[in-house]
């Protein structure tokens, strides 16, 4: 299963979707993305993003659901 992030009930599966949700926070979201592979490829799965580092940069509170690749942002 690929990495996913849930923000306000919206499931993000690509860097583009994650950046769009982070930009709603008033952040320059694309610059917050921490790439590990395929830099700039916004329509790949989130496996190309270091999600924990990206969420830490965004200063949002988040948890990892069990040991899965699902991250949940808490407001």
Structure description:
By secondary structure, this protein is α+β, with helices and mostly antiparallel strands. It has one domain. The protein has helices at 15-23, 29-32, 51-58, and strands at residues 4-7, 10-12, 61-64, 70-74. It has a 4-stranded mixed beta sheet, with helices on one face. The model has no long low-confidence stretch (mean pLDDT 88).
Can you give keywords for this protein?
alpha+beta; single chain; 4-stranded mixed sheet; 75 residues; 3 helices
Low-confidence stretches: none
Rg calculated over all Cα atoms: 11 Å
Strand content: 15-25%
Reading side by side through the largest sheet, how are the strands ordered?
Answer: 2-1-4-3
Number of strands: 4
How confident is the prediction overall: mean pLDDT? 88
H/E topology pattern: EEHHHEE
Q: Could you give a short account of the major beta sheet?
A: 4 strands, mixed
Q: What structural class do helix, strand and pairing data support?
A: alpha+beta
Q: What's the helix count?
A: 3
Estimate percent helicity: 25-40%
Q: Domains counted in the coordinates: how many?
A: 1
Q: Tell me the quaternary state.
A: single chain
Distance between the termini: 25 Å
**Principal-axes shape call:** globular
């Amino acid at each position: 299963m690929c990495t996913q992030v849930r923000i306000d009930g919206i499931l993000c599966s690509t860097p583009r979707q994650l950046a769009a949700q982070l930009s709603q926070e008033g952040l320059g979201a694309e610059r917050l993305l921490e790439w590990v592979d395929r830099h700039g490829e916004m329509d790949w799965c989130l496996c190309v993003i270091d999600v924990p580092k990206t969420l830490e940069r965004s200063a949002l509170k988040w948890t990892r659901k069990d040991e899965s690749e699902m991250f949940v942002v808490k407001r």
